[in-house]
Structure formats: C-alpha cells, structure tokens
Write a structure and sequence with these properties.
heterodimer; A: mainly alpha; 11 helices; B: 2 domains; 6-stranded mixed sheet; about 35% helix; disordered C terminus
Chain lengths: ~240, ~325
C-alpha cells in the first residue's frame, strides 16, 4: 500500500515538475471555457440547461487532455529505460499500474475542476444570467459523471501506453481509443444501419443525462467495471513481460 | 552461495543471447563479468535482476528463485542498469528518496542512508540539482547511489564506470572494492584493467557462453604462448646484438630495432624458461649499456583476446 502512494505521489508531482502541467491547465481552461461561452452567448435560445452545455464542452476537450496525460505513463518509461529500474525494486505490477493510474486521474481532476470558474465568467459577461439560475444538483451529478468518464478514459489510455514505447504512436492510438469509447454506441448503431440500438453504453447520452441532474445507477456500474477491466488488462500486460 | 545460475538460456527471436550458462557466486566475492559487446552480459544481468524472463534454466539469488519469488529477490539486490536510466526532471534528493521508499526505507533510516550514499558517491554538493542538468559522471553516481541505498546483499552493476573521468573511475573503483567487504558484487565491464584490479574472480563470456572462469591471476597463468623479455641496449649493431641474443639456448626468437641511440630488443622463450638473466649476461660480457630490462607481464587483455578469439593489437599480436 505504501508503494502505491509513493508511486501515486511521484506520478502526480512529475506532472508539475515539467511545464507540461501548467501549459495544459491554461490551454484546457481557455479552449473548454471558450467553447462553452461561445455556445451560450451565440445561441439566441438555449434549448438545453446550462450545465449540459458546460459538461459537453469539457468532455470534447477532455479527450485531448486524457491523450496527453496518459500517453506518457508507460511509453515514456519504456523509452527512457526507467521501467527497468522500476521493475527491479520490490514493487508489484498492481502497485505500479494503480499508482500511475491514480496519479494521472488525480492530475486530470485537478486540471478540469477549475473550469467551474467559467460559470462565474459567464455571469460577469451576460447580465441576463444569474448564478441562482444554475441547478447545483445538476452541477454535482455532472461533476460525478465527469470523474467516472475520466476514470474509464484514463484506464483505456494507460493500457494503450503500455503497448508501445513510442509516444507518438501512443498518443494517436490513445486518441482514437478514447473517441472509440465515447462514441461506441453511435458506431454500433451506424454500422448496423440502425438494426442494433445500443443505448446503455453510449457515453455521450450518460453525460447529457447526468448533467441534467438525472442519476441512473446502471452507468455507474458500467464505468466502475469498465475501468476495472482495463486496469486488470494493464496489470496482465505488464506482467506478461515476465511470462515464459 | 548467493547467486546460483544453472543452465540459463535466453533466446530472442532469431538469436540466442545466453546459451546454457551455469555459474555461482559466493558471499563477499567481487565477480567480474567480462565479454565483448553483444556477448550476453547485459541480458544475464537483466535476468538476475528479475527484469527479463529466461527461456530456460534456473536462477537463484540468496536462495530465492528469480522467476517465482521475484519480489523477495528484488528486496535483496541493488541493480544499476547499463545506461543509468533516471527521472531527469527530479532533483537528486527527491529521486533517491523516491527510490528509497520503494525499497522499503523510511524515516530516520532513509535519512541516514541518504547521507551515507551522498558521502560515499560524492553527491553532497549536487544533491539539490535537477538530474537532467547533471553531467554523465554525476548521473552515473546517482545510479550507483540508488543501487547502494538499501544496503543490498547483492549488487549487480552493469558497466559502472562508463563515461567517468580517470579520477572518478579511481574513486568508484575504490568504492566498489570497499563494498566487497560487506556486499557481494557482480560487475559487468569491458574495461579489462578495471576488472583485473577490482575483482576476485572473472567470468569471461563470449557469444552467450562462459569461456573462462577463475581469478585474474590464474587466468593469466593459463595463457598459451611464449614469455617475452624486453631490453633497451646500446653498444652493438642491431645485427650483432640480435645474433648474440639468439645464441642464448632458451631463446626461441629475438628481434632488435634501433630507436634513437638505443636498440629495442625483444627475446621470446618457452613458458617454463626464464631468460632475463641470460640476456643480462650477454649484455655484460659484451660491455654494452643496458637501459631497461623487464619481463612483459601478460594481462587479462591477452586472456580476453585469446578466449574470445579476437586479435588484439597490443596484447595478442606477438604471440
């Protein structure tokens, strides 16, 4: 357990040791709040609650953020050879995978959550919007689904990062995999010409429902088990190096 | 015994890196692992450290199986990989603290060990620096400090002095020699001089096989070929000197070449014959001047060249 926290802490602090974290934070805040503000201020009549617009704007850019954060998790260590030093100290594969995962996820949460400031910005720029108009319940459930989606996407990114030592390949594959997960329901529906309707695993629908304040327990199970599946696969991939 | 390797084999697709090798290491030994590039040194060390799986055979470290009880083995080793991979964005202290915690150290013991390795590896003045800004030599020392951190029973050092300047090499060499009192050290190197000076025992590996294993002294003794005496003489013409030297009964071959006012002469004899005295007598009876007379010591370099089958310009060329 101690090793898990040691790796978690190292992974999180590694993000802040390089300028990458600060650049990511600023750019992410700028583009996602820009997207949100544009949508709200340019649409004459908003057909959906403000929270839906906010969380959709975040998720679109979250895909890039997840890619940038998770591509380096293992690909970087493999390329620089530090994986060799990490795998020769008394640390289990589970501790390494979970520690790195926790580090990446906590960094992601740290970066995405200041976006709430955007709402204050919105109030400042448009006199017709009041803070009281916001549904705090919907904000909380939206935040919850954001964490759940991030958990799943980071676990996918971590697995992809384990499969290559090249960061560019890791980034491209990770980006595709992340969008693949987000749009899985749509892809199945389109591919089968509408014959198969996949509704329960369409991430975009979950985000819309949760950020309107609609809590459904089925997606909760989906995200928790999905994350567990990808983390389990990652541990096995890391272990497979020692199989013979 | 602390390391017990039996019939270890490692195959990569299309290549056998380590081919059925067996050896053991006793506690407090400093064993040098010697071989040309690509001989399988690094692969063997990576298997010993539990990083790579073997294709066949068994490896035990301190009584634990490297494959089945990997964590127990890793608790007992300190491993310095070949290219010293480090997290270049961390400070030296931060990095070593992180590594120490992973190795199960903490609190006062971690602080005490940090101070100890800073002192023994000469890192005290750079401990606040970011690793990425350090020179090659200092990075090497950070890697070495890391491997020493938990006072492991077995140290596996893959080319520990690459990229260091002569002073640093001497420091590290003394450090390793000192380590031999409390730790067992397995050291890979292709710097023969270093191995000869530091190690109690040498394993020479070539094309995945162990071709020689003994103390450096005994290995040199095993060499085939002739003894050679070198002398610098002034007095006669090269032809006369050579003729008179060849007249010594035990000499099988003599050569003389002028070098300035001196003649550089080499006399070779069979391994069991000592001819230095005879050479001196020839010089004395003819009234020549003798500037230098010594028997050339054969060293590990010659052994290395002989067993790895490579011609070596300095050592092996005149066999």
């Amino acid at each position: 357990m101690k090793n898990f926290f040691t790796i978690w802490f190292r992974e999180l602090s590694a993000c802040f040791l390089s300028p990458v974290a600060y650049v990511l934070m600023v750019v992410f805040l700028a583009v996602s709040s820009g997207t949100f503000l544009l949508e709200v201020t340019q649409t004459p009549v908003l057909e959906q609650p403000l929270t839906v617009a906010l969380f959709e704007a975040i998720v679109v850019w979250l895909t890039i953020l997840v890619t940038v954060v998770s591509m380096r998790l293992f690909a970087e260590e493999k390329r620089s050879g530090t994986l060799e030093t990490l795998m020769t100290v008394p640390v289990t594969e589970e501790q390494i995978v979970l520690g790195k995962y926790a580090g990446a996820l906590s960094f992601l949460i740290l970066v995405t959550f200041p976006i709430a400031i955007t709402l204050l910005l919105l109030v400042a720029v448009s006199p017709s919007v009041q803070l009281a108009d916001l549904d705090t319940g919907a904000l909380l459930t939206g935040g919850a689904i954001l964490i759940l989606v991030s958990s799943l996407l980071v676990s996918v990114g971590l697995l992809v990062s384990l499969l290559t030592r090249n960061q560019v390949i890791a980034a491209i594959c990770c980006f595709c995999a992340v969008w693949g997960v987000l749009l899985f329901g749509w892809i199945v529906t389109l591919a089968t010409g509408g014959a198969v309707q996949v509704t329960m695993i369409t991430v975009t629908d979950h985000i819309r429902d949760f950020s309107r304040g609609m809590v459904d327990t089925r997606p909760l199970v989906l995200y928790v088990t999905g994350t567990a599946l990808f983390l389990f696969a990652s541990v096995r991939v890391l272990e497979s190096r020692r199989w013979r | 015994m602390i390391v017990d390797v039996k019939n270890l084999t490692k195959r990569y697709p299309g290549k056998t890196a380590v081919d059925d090798i067996s050896f053991d290491v006793q506690p407090s030994e400093i064993v040098g692992f010697l071989g040309p590039n690509g001989a399988g040194k690094t692969t063997t060390m990576q298997i010993l450290a539990g990083y790579l799986p073997a294709t066949g055979g068994s490896v035990e470290v301190a009584g634990y199986d490297v494959f089945k009880q990997s964590i127990e083995v890793r608790r007992r080793i300190g491993y310095l990989p070949e290219n010293v991979p480090l997290y270049t964005d961390m400070r030296v202290t931060e990095y070593l603290k992180f590594r120490g915690r992973l190795k199960g150290l903490g609190g006062a013991r971690l602080r005490a060990r940090l101070d100890a390795v800073f002192a023994s590896c000469g890192l005290t003045e750079v401990h606040r620096q970011i690793i990425g800004s350090l020179s090659r030599g200092f990075r090497q020392r950070v890697g070495l400090a890391d491997s020493l951190l938990s006072e492991p029973e077995l140290l596996i050092l893959d080319e520990p002095t690459v990229g260091l300047d002569p002073n640093q090499i001497r420091q590290i060499r003394n450090l390793i020699r000192g380590l031999g009192e409390r730790h067992t050290v397995l050291l890979a190197s292709h710097i023969l001089h270093e191995v000869e000076m530091v190690c109690n025992r040498v394993l020479i590996i070539n094309q995945g096989r162990i071709v020689a294993s003994d103390t450096p002294g005994k290995l040199v003794g095993l060499l085939r070929g002739n003894r050679r005496v070198s002398a610098r003489i002034r007095g006669g013409t090269p032809q006369t000197v050579q003729r008179l030297l060849e007249a010594i009964p035990a000499v099988v071959h003599a050569s003389c070449e002028p070098q300035g006012v001196w003649l550089q002469c080499y006399c070779e004899s069979k391994k069991e014959d000592d001819i230095a005295e005879d050479v001196f007598r020839v010089v004395a009876t003819n009234g020549w001047c003798l500037h230098e007379l010594h028997e050339e010591r054969r060293n590990l370099e010659d052994v290395f060249a002989e067993v790895t089958g490579e011609e070596n310009g300095n050592g092996g060329g005149h066999r």
